[in-house]
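Data card: per-record layout.
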Amino acid sequence: MTTSRRRMLSGLGLSLPLVLTLAGCAAAPTRVPRLLRLEAEPRPEPGGATDLSAAPVWHLQRVQLPAYLDRELVLAGQGAGSLQALPEVRWAEPLAEAVPRLLRRDLARAATEAGQPAQVWGAALPAGLSAALRLRIDIERLEADLAAGRVRLAAIWVVSDPAGRQTVRSGQLELAEPLAGETSAEALVAAHRRALQRLAQAVAASSLRGN
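The structure for this 211-residue chain is written out next.
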């Protein structure tokens, strides 16, 4: 560095060590986090697509997630009452968007597997469709517990009449889905998916009760 360059930096109040530190920081490569995506499995087609045109309509009006999950961070429990973001991974899609979409598909699949197919819609119903029942699901907890090798989920739900004014049934579920002996990104995603599928199966069973 020339003498004139040093004088100019000195006039700006910047010391040589600080300039070198800043230069080193600027040159350091930024690590791009790995993006994780919750995927739905392809629909089984043993004998072609199922005709749902005459199936009852389930209106999934709301899937509520805790505010701490309304971000791209992948969170893991760190002792009692503490959460920490996993440093090198992020959700590719906000959970507030991914979870309702996956639950709609999982609910439809669970109803079909129970022998009582249903059309599962979210948000606003298309014109001409009327709901046979309405669902609201509140997920109170959905996070990894790496120390225990599990993904934990806690949720409550309400099944209402077609007008959505009277509760017909309600339920709650707490579960811990094992990470299958791994803590890899793939195992983490798979455990989250299995937890959501188990929730959908419980909600579908509750919705079909008495039908």
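Known properties of this structure: The longest strand covers residues 133-145. The chain is about 30% helix and 30% strand.

See the next section for split statistics.
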